[in-house]
Design brief:
Helices cover 36% and strands 19% of the residues. It is an alpha/beta fold. The chain folds into two domains: 264 residues, Rossmann fold, CATH 3.40.50.2000; 193 residues, Rossmann fold. The strands form three sheets. It has a nine-stranded mixed sheet with strand order 3-4-5-2-1-6-7-11-12, with helices on both faces. A hairpin with a 2-residue loop joins β3 and β4. α10 packs across α13, α11 packs parallel to α12 and α14 crosses α18. The longest helix is centred in the first third of the chain and has 16 residues. The radius of gyration is 23 Å and the shape is elongated. The mean pLDDT is 96. The protein binds adenosine-5'-diphosphate. Adenosine-5'-diphosphate binds next to β13, β14 and α13.
Length: 483
């Protein structure tokens, strides 16, 4: 029988994106649909949604005394159906899903996503005039956390999966929100959506979903410890049997050095020397001295502590004294932006920084750089180390989360048996990062070994097809409750 899956998400590329969740929501349903699953997305109808596809009115449902329309469209360029929860009083404002135009969190975040969850429940229970009954509801992050909680109160319901993309965001609100939103009182208990006297949306997923997944096997283990669990490590280890890690894939069409429209010279493993032309083009574009022999380090990231940007700042004096160039693209904490910009200003022949979000430049950095820095303190999965490998740009990563699962350290034995794909360091300190940078420079000085490192990375299979099969295996084991 064809599986029917409702995929609940707060963002999906290319309709609207703020981070990795949008990439997953834009790619996984497409890959599942390729495996024969009838998968449909449901997400809020934000003002900022961009699409070239047609949008139709389907129905209106009333939840908690509020009317919400359900509109239907498709994920652009695919056959995957998307239901948009249209409720202008909550979603018809400029800004992104989580913050307004000034960057302040929406004052009514709890109300917005509680409404969204309630409508998703009506769709899940086939009470919204869409004539479609899913067997599985796949929820993502705290914004959809109330869905498994509310469904637990139904006598007969679909099976539920809850995926954690980042434990650092939990949707915590004052207790008074429970009454203000008229949420069912039985859910309010320490084993439910209560967390230290606060209302926790993410606990709705963690406590009530039939299965919990996160986006890498290592992160699945880490979040059961105090360092990564944000106080929920106890609940997660209690639910250990229901918890698994499945790595995200990458969009192989969008990230392909053989066809990438953003880069000046296309290349693959057999024409790796052409990568140098992208390096020269990048150096020229960023006003750095053009020199194909000097190793170029790149970093593309949100400039926040999670990504280990403070470690990079601490390393910079030593790093910039070495024979290398450093190109950086990102935006985030003002203090990091200023510190990094100061270094770029005082070392214009060694470092170039672009503050902002620029997808084209991100592709050019991946194609033109030799080495990619990802010293994250925690990293649920991470995408740039995967893009880097595909572009023959060797990543330096901290051994955490998805980075630990996808990069094999260039130790002598791994170089010898051709399994190495990058450089891995353990401690989140500037000293260990610096050691890894020096190790990378040593191997960079051995052209044959370097070429092998690049080739092994380029041959890895990080396709969504592979991840989708892992999700399918998980769905296969689930059965709707009480039916
Ligand atoms: P996270 O979701 O924690 O930010 P990921 O590595 O999972 O980190 O995904 C980040 C995505 O956003 C990647 O596709 C990365 O290339 C992209 N990205 C981050 N910052 C920028 C930027 N300033 N310009 C362009 N792309 C960016």
């Amino acid at each position: 029988m064809i599986k029917k899956i409702l995929f609940v998400t707060s963002e999906a590329h290319p309709l609207i994106k703020t981070g990795g969740l949008a990439d997953v929501s834009g790619s996984l349903p497409k890959a599942l649909s390729g495996l024969g699953v009838d998968v449909r997305l449901i997400m809020p109808n934000y003002q900022a949604i961009k699409t070239t596809e047609e949008i139709f009115y389907k129905s209106t449902v009333r939840v908690n005394h509020i009317d919400a329309n359900i509109l239907e469209t498709r994920l652009p360029g695919t056959q995957v159906l998307v239901w948009l929860v249209d409720c202008p009083e909550f979603f018809d404002f400029p800004g992104n899903p989580y913050v307004d135009e000034q960057g302040n969190a929406w004052a009514n975040s709890a109300g917005r996503f509680a409404l969204f969850c309630r409508v998703a429940v009506e769709v899940a229970m086939n009470r919204s005039y869409l004539d479609w009954t899913p067997g599985i509801i796949h929820c993502n992050d705290w914004q959809s956390g109330l869905v498994p909680a509310l469904l637990s109160l139904e006598a007969s319901r679909p099976a539920t999966v809850f995926t954690i993309h980042n434990m650092a965001y939990q949707g915590l609100f004052p207790k008074s929100t429970l009454t203000a939103l008229n949420l069912p009182k039985p859910l309010w208990n320490p084993a439910g959506i209560e967390f230290n006297g606060m209302l926790s949306f993410i606990k709705g997923g963690l406590a009530y979903a039939d299965r919990i997944t996160t986006v890498s096997p290592t992160y699945a283990v880490e979040i059961q410890t105090a360092d990564y669990g944000y106080g929920l490590e106890g609940l997660l280890s209690h639910r250990n049997d229901a918890l698994t890690g499945i790595l995200n894939g990458i969009d192989l069409g969008q990230w392909n050095p053989r066809t990438d429209p953003a880069i000046s010279e296309h290349y693959d493993i057999s024409t790796l020397n052409k990568k140098q032309l992208n390096k020269s083009a990048l150096q020229k574009k960023l006003s750095l001295p053009v020199d194909i022999n000097i190793p170029v380090f790149a970093l593309i990231s949100r400039l926040v502590e999670q990504k280990g940007i403070d470690l990079v700042v601490e390393c910079l004096p030593g790093m910039l004294a070495l024979p290398l160039q450093f190109v950086l693209l990102g935006r985030g904490d003002k203090e990091f932006e200023q510190q990094l910009s100061r270094f770029a200003k005082t070392h214009p022949d060694k470092m170039a920084i672009t503050l902002g979000y620029d997808e084209t430049l991100a592709h050019q950095l991946e194609a033109g750089a030799d080495i990619f820095l990802m010293p994250s303190r925690f990293e649920p999965c991470g995408l740039n180390q995967l893009y880097s490998q595909r572009y023959g740009t060797v990543p330096i990563v901290r051994k955490t989360g998805g980075l630990a699962d996808t990069v094999v350290d260039a130790l002598p034995e791994n170089l010898g048996n051709k399994t190495a794909t990058g450089f891995v360091f353990n401690e989140a300190t500037a000293g260990t990062l610096m050691e890894a940078i020096k190790r990378a420079l040593l191997v960079y000085g051995q052209p044959e070994a370097w070429k092998q490192l690049q080739a092994t990375g380029m041959q890895q299979d990080h396709s969504w097809h592979k991840s989708a099969k892992d999700y399918m295996a998980l769905y296969e084991k689930l059965v709707p409750a009480g039916r």
